[in-house]
Amino acid sequence: DDYYGLIGKSPISDHVWNTLSNPSYSRTAKIWSCIYNLFVALASLSFVLESEPSYRYITDEVKAKLVGDLPKPGDLRFMMYSVEFPSVCLLDIICWTFFTVEFFIRLAVTPRISVFLKSKLNIMDIFLLASVWIIFFTSQYVTDSFHKFNYFFFYTS
């Protein structure tokens, strides 16, 4: 899966490809690599925070259904009935949007699309991105949490 040295569609796409995939290509590529690694760290942090009870809460609707039998933060039931704070979800969305855009840019400028699509890491990226967005758009969390907080301008109630 060695793409280095392949001639792409245009000098611009070659430059973008090398910048995104080869940190030793240029100073810009090194900066891009640092930014990418920052997003990996933020996504990892978001994953950890989603499971931390102090970054979760029980919605009013769930409280009304559980009348008097509210689980405590250390209880497994708390994780089942609680949702993460919208700020943690927003961090997750920002990170996954970044990874999705980066993947499609790499796909657009790849020197050899057939080699790109056969790469095991890119196949994993496709499955991971697809599963993340399917889970996001089909989860009850979206309707429960963002209905109250309206973080996105495109959300309508």
Structure description:
It is found in: Membrane. InterPro entries: VG_K_chnl (IPR028325), Volt_channel_dom_sf (IPR027359). Its main location: membrane. By secondary structure, the chain is mainly alpha-helical. The protein has one domain. The protein is built from eight helices and two strands. The chain has helices at residues 11-21, 27-50, 60-65, 76-81, 86-109, 113-118, 120-138, 140-149, and strands at 56-57, 83-84. It has a two-stranded antiparallel ribbon. Helix 1 packs across helix 2 (27-50) and helix 1 (11-21) packs across helix 5 (86-109). It is elongated. The model is unreliable at 150-157 (pLDDT under 50).
Features:
157 residues; mainly alpha; two-stranded antiparallel sheet; 2 strands; 68% helix; disordered C terminus
In DSSP terms (H or I, runs of 4 or more residues), the helix count works out at 8
Distance between the termini: 47 Å
Shape from CA axes? elongated
SSE topology string: HHEHHEHHHH
Low-confidence stretches: 150-157
Rounded average pLDDT: 78
Rg is: 20 Å
State the domain count: 1
Order of neighbouring strands in the sheet with most strands: 1-2
> What is the helical fraction, as a range of percent?
55-70%
Count all strands and give the number: 2
Estimated structural class: mainly alpha
Largest sheet: 2 strands, antiparallel
Strand content: under 5%
